[in-house]
Amino acid sequence: MDETKLTGALPNMTVEITHGTSDDGSAEHLTIHLKATPNLQSALPLFGGLLQLPFMLGQSPFTAWTQATQALMAPWANLAQLNPNPWSALLTDGFLGKSKK
After folding, report:
1. Which of 60, 64, 65, 99 is the most exposed place for a label (fewest CB within 10 A)?
2. Closest Cα partner for 47 from 91, 3, 10, 73?
3. Rounded CA gap, 76 and 86, in Å?
């Protein structure tokens, strides 16, 4: 079994991430082990607002999808604002040259 282990020490918590594959190579696993000292309550400030994420998704999943879509489409939306009609450049004489009549 091929396995990679990463361990990090934070002020009140030790984080261990293990990634590996099964002996026959048919499966892959990822394990995240959190060990808080003296308890998990003391490590809560390390997570900040991340602990609220499941509750926010449960309350308004459409808002989460909307925000994700807006983030993905932001470059295209900015381009569309800069040039609202991209085809207008193709129709001008300056771009295609003078048309013969």
Report:
1. 99
2. 10
3. 12
- How far is it, in rounded angstroms, from Cα 11 to Cα 7? 13
Residues 6+ apart with CB under 8 A from 99: 93
Task: Name the phi and psi angles at 34, rounded to 5.
Answer: -110, 130
| Encoded tokens for 78 | 């900015």
Q: pLDDT digits over 56-83, tens only?
A: 666 676 777 787 788 888 877 777 777 7
Q: Map tokens 């499966």 to a residue.
A: 27
Give the pLDDT of residue 36: 84
Q: What global pTM score does this model have?
A: 0.43
C-alpha pair distances (Å), 38 with each of 34, 41, 45, 54 = 12, 8, 14, 25
CA–CA distance, 69 with 23 (Å, rounded to integer): 39
Q: Check whether the bond before 61 is cis (ω within 30° of 0).
A: no
